Amino acid sequence: MQDRYNVKECEARWQKVWEDRKAFNVTEAAGKPKFYALAMFPYPSGRLHVGHMRNYTMTDIVARYKRAQGYNVLNPMGWDAFGLPAENAAIENKTHPAAWTTANIAAMKKDLKLMGLAIDWTREIATCVPEYYKHEQKFFLDFLKAGLAYQKESMVNWDPVENTVLANEQVVDGRGWRSGAPVERKKLVQWFLKITAFADDLLDGLKELGGWPEKVRLMQENWIGKSQGLKFFFDIVGPGRRQLEIFTTRPDTLFGASFVAISPDHPLAEELAAKNAGIADYIAECHRTGTSEAVLEAAEKTGFDTGLLVEHPFIKNKTLRVFIANFVLMDYGTGAIFGCPAHDQRDLDFARRYRLDVLPVVIPDDADPKTFVIENEPYTGPGHLYHSDFLNGMHVAEAKAEVIRRFEAAGKGEGTTLYRLRDWGVSRQRYWGCPIPVVHCPKCGVVPVAEKDLPVTLPQDVDFTKPGNPIANHPTWKKTACPACGAAAERETDTFDTFFESSWYQFRYTDPKNAARGFDKDKVAYWAPVDQYIGGVEHAVMHLLYARFFTRALKKCGYLDFDEPFKALFTQGMVVHETYKDEKGKWLFPQEVERGHNGQWIKKSDGTLVEAGRIEKMSKSKKNVIGLEEVSENYGMDAARLLVLSDSPPERDVEWTEGGIEGAWKYINRLWRLVAAASFDGKDGDVDTMRRKITRTIFDMTQDFDKFHFNKAVAHLRELSNALEAFSDDGAVLKEGIEALVRLMSPIMPHIAEELWLHLGHKTLLVDTPWPQADAALLANDTVTMAIQVNGKLRATITLPKDMDQKLAEKAALDEPQIQKALDGKAPRKVIVVPNRIINVVV
Questions:
Q1: What is the 3-state secondary structure of 574-618?
Q2: Model's pTM, two decimal places?
Q3: I need a surface site. Which of 56, 242, 493, 691 has the fewest CB within 10 A?
Q4: How many helices (H) does the chain have, and how many strands (E)?
Q5: pLDDT tens for residues 741-779?
Q6: Per DSSP, what are the bridge partners of residue 153?
Q7: Residue 720 and residue 686 in contact, taking contact as beta carbons nearer than 8 Å
Q8: At residue 123, does pLDDT exceed 70?
């Protein structure tokens, strides 16, 4: 064994060995437990850097660990390859989006392979090729037949830079999520998927996702936004006895109403605008903002007094002014609300601006009505009603029910359940996306493309110099014959939102070469759902919600038999690094700065002061990225993997520093020297303490990997290596400890682990070697063996730490192969844990 570890040669050699032996290629294996590990697939935007590697490393750890535990592990990779950046790059670089994307895929695949990931590359997919997107075109046709896809005119978020529609979820602080441009409102005919048909099911399903972070489940719950309230009518003052329908979640506050507001897109507003130039101008101003609730909530609350009045339904001779207001959404409720400023911040801001009455009608139970006033903040807490006639003295819930009862009895309203969730607008007016497979015929209307004619592919000869949609501008592509009557017709020129592709890609991996179908039902039943999904929390209410809907839609259309795409989700923290910025706010590369004579950072070019030390997410725009090739050349990928896992829990950010990567590299060389210097010829001396340390480390690191405590696993690994370095006896126990150390480090530092395993004389690859087992006898003092029953019948035993957290004990029991076999795919109704004694699984 060499005295010095040759990292570059070693990592390249083992990557080739794994590839040549097809170590990570898998097929379905009856009778063997499966595990599907998946990292959110990347957009092929260019080269990867160490800021990208953390989630891929974590997924790789899970895949290698589960493989060692005997699971048949699927860990695939692909490319989320459609999207506007490719189209924008094509315009900037005078190339085709396909060429730009293909080149980036090749570069990024090289980077991923440099990391030594345990990926089955035979399952690689790219969403931009017809072999992939023809299947989602078929899905769309099936959704049409099932009533889950439809077309309608709607007010949309329009990105004026990218010239395309954005879903509400893609508008961030009033700006396009990619371009950063202020979003405008515009009315267009769009295609929608009926996600609202599954609103209750999506909400209820969150309760079953115990393997998801609570914050993500809460974000989805709030986005779906189920609310119960009252729909009722105000009578408009004037001839004709016209009515205005209102929705409210606070009918109890009706006696505190001081105004009524309607959306700028309400039919009444449009009617009034036709006769009033001031109203028309105000509506046009409102349309220069986005349509999402978040955007409108952040905007300054403004209104336009229409001059109309409505009669209060309970207070005789009282009228309320009707405003058009920029914060009222047409697609929520009825597009009209009443405002009670004393109990809603938005209404209070509006009332103060327009000098409207603020009358509190709900008061805390311990407050004095004579002194209770509303100043700058509304009262939104519990209490009882006052200033409210027949509601006085009732608590809020009772008052809500009474108001609803009275409106229903009078035939002027009804209790209603509504949702914030809106149907998913999937039309995009750009080129680089999947064509929507329908034809517009002047005789037949909208006609689906015949399935035999799929895929509808993109034209290759497009002109990006003209503004607008390049497909719509194409001289011939859209011209076709109607599939129904044969008359001259035009193809749909919109393409799908790219979240369409990422909503089902996890299922394509299970059968990526299937030309006839998106995936085989038996294969997807074997592999899916994904057992562990890893990616960024920023996808909580876009990709993750859409994928949950898409799975249900596919189930309705007969493609699969389950509801949830991802059993467990982990949202990793980011890799952050220091940044440099000059006096004008321009980001600088590290090589552009240096320390001045007084110790301050300055620009090398002109000596001006530089703002340094701010820690930011690694980003090309901030010029603080570290390339993978640079790290591989100088330290190796094992060192990089070790660093991004070591100093911080995986759900939190971790800082990349030169000192950190140097320290990781030094530790790897310590491991090398430990094994190189070891001799196993001597006799064992005092070995009991060391054997307990070895088995305790095995036990602890197994728990750490199960719980995603990767930083703790690294700490336990270091403790064991320190103990082995200090162990003065040669012989069998030293060999046992070093072999355990190498096996335990394998998921974290796979290259050096394989090299050390070979040096120890093993013929079998370490990736094919089972996970080490802790010696229960040596753990007897701090562990307990518990019986696992299924419906009261003993099925297995398990050794766990004494007084272990009950949820973790449940998970450990359900993961036992004998219990999975006994359950035979059935979900347990409950798991009863009697601490330190019995775990009973009830089916």
A1: CEEEEEEECCCCCEECHHHEEECCCCCEEECCCCCECEEEEEEEC
A2: 0.85
A3: 242
A4: 25, 37
A5: 999 999 999 999 999 999 999 999 999 999 999 988 887
A6: 189
A7: no
A8: yes
